[in-house]
């Protein structure tokens, strides 16, 4: 592989050129990818990458559930979102949703004001912040998981007011709360993606929510009613009916067998990190919204032992999926393309002419060697 400024020459392309095994929407190509801020051309021939030792060039990772990293939490406000977007970019995440915690309205407003600035202007060296994932406060107080106890019913007026501070692209809602089914419909009709999560709802509640426009499920299997033969619960609704759902593949939140069951059931299952301030940091105590969490042995927990987000990064998520038996192309779609599709982003999550030059280069052991966000090369010294 080469990486350098192409003067034009016989190919007629300017900007940066990368060479290797390129994963396109049509399959693997052995050849050259040319780009500046966007991909200008891909040249080459179809290939089975098993037939050579060249590096892999994949779409940049897209993470729709990011609470923190580098010691910072989205709820901190200020420059926290830029610090978080920088550490995740160094692990291959080229775009992300800043994800909030259940909290008083004043805390949410502070966090979203900071996120709004980051959405409008991407700082050099950071992932693109596409918008916000509101994970609460519109959840069931009986299924908080690691969320603080500030749950409340949703209103379209309140969500609209918050979205004026920063674009709310995704929102987690417990559909069994009185009035929420109609709110799900209104939010979906307004263009937001609504996911079912932090819920005590039944299978029937899940089916109804999907019929009202809900598009998926938040961290499948976690903080929702489980599957039983005569009470299939929210997990059953997801496995039977979902087209999209997010899942945390850190191998702590979900057993590998459950991941494989979900992969067989949900066509566009996509992966998120649910990462916290402890991501990229040593063991110790950190904040998750208004709650203290402890990082130890790769996990993040509340004092009572409840899992409280993760320290997962998307490059490790990719390696975990391949370790479970997925081929690299399928794993790539689940850390990139399907998340983009869920948000309706046709110019991200794929390597094709005209798309944003969001891409990662990996060696044959799936270690990152290069990351580009909208054509800007990200330094990987801290990976």
The CATH superfamily label of the largest domain reads Metal-dependent hydrolases
**Mean pLDDT over the residues:** 94
Shape: globular
Q: What is the count of structural domains?
A: 2
The CATH architecture of the largest domain can be given as Alpha-Beta Barrel
- Low-confidence runs (pLDDT<50, min 5 residues)? 1-12
Helix content: 25-40%
Task: Please report the total strand number as a whole number.
Answer: 21
Class of the largest domain in CATH? Answer: Alpha Beta
List keywords for this structure.
single chain, 383 residues, alpha/beta, Urease, subunit C, domain 1, TIM Barrel, 2 domains, 8-stranded mixed β-sheet, 6-stranded parallel β-sheet, 9 helices, 21 strands, globular, disordered N terminus
């Amino acid at each position: 592989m080469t990486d350098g400024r192409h003067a034009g020459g016989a190919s007629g392309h300017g900007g940066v050129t990368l060479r290797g095994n390129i994963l396109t929407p049509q399959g693997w190509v052995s050849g050259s990818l040319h780009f500046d801020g966007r991909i200008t051309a891909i040249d080459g021939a179809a290939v089975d990458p098993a037939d050579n030792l060249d590096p892999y060039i994949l779409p940049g990772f897209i993470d729709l559930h990011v609470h923190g990293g580098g010691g910072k939490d989205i709820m901190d406000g200020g420059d926290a979102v830029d610090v978080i977007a920088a550490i995740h970019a160094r692990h291959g995440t080229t775009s992300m949703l800043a994800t909030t915690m259940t909290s008083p309205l004043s805390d949410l407003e502070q966090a979203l004001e900071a996120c709004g600035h980051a959405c409008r202007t991407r700082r050099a060296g950071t992932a693109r912040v596409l918008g916000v994932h509101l994970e609460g406060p519109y959840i069931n107080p009986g299924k908080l998981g690691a969320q603080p106890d500030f749950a409340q019913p949703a209103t379209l007026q309140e969500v609209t007011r918050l979205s004026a501070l920063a674009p709310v692209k995704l929102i987690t809602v417990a559909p069994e709360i009185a009035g929420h089914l109609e709110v799900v419909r209104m939010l979906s009709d307004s263009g937001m993606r609504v996911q079912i999560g932090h819920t005590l709802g039944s299978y029937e509640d899940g089916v109804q929510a999907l019929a009202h426009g809900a598009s998926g499920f938040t961290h499948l299997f976690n903080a929702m009613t489980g599957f039983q033969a005569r009470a299939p619960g929210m997990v059953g609704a997801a496995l039977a009916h979902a087209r999209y759902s997010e899942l945390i593949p850190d191998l702590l939140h979900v057993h590998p067998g459950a991941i494989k069951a979900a992969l067989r059931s949900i066509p566009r299952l996509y992966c998120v990190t649910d990462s916290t301030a402890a991501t990229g940091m040593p063991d110790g105590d950190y904040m998750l919204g208004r709650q203290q969490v402890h990082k130890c042995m790769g996990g993040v927990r509340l004092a009572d032992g409840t899992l409280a987000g993760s320290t997962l990064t998307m490059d490790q998520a990719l390696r975990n999926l391949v370790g479970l038996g997925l081929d690299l192309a399928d794993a790539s779609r689940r850390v990139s393309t399907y998340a983009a599709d869920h948000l309706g982003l046709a110019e991200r999550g794929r390597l094709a002419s005209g798309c944003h030059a969001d891409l990662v280069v990996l060696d044959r052991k799936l270690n990152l060697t290069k990351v580009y966000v909208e054509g800007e090369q990200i330094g990987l010294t801290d990976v």
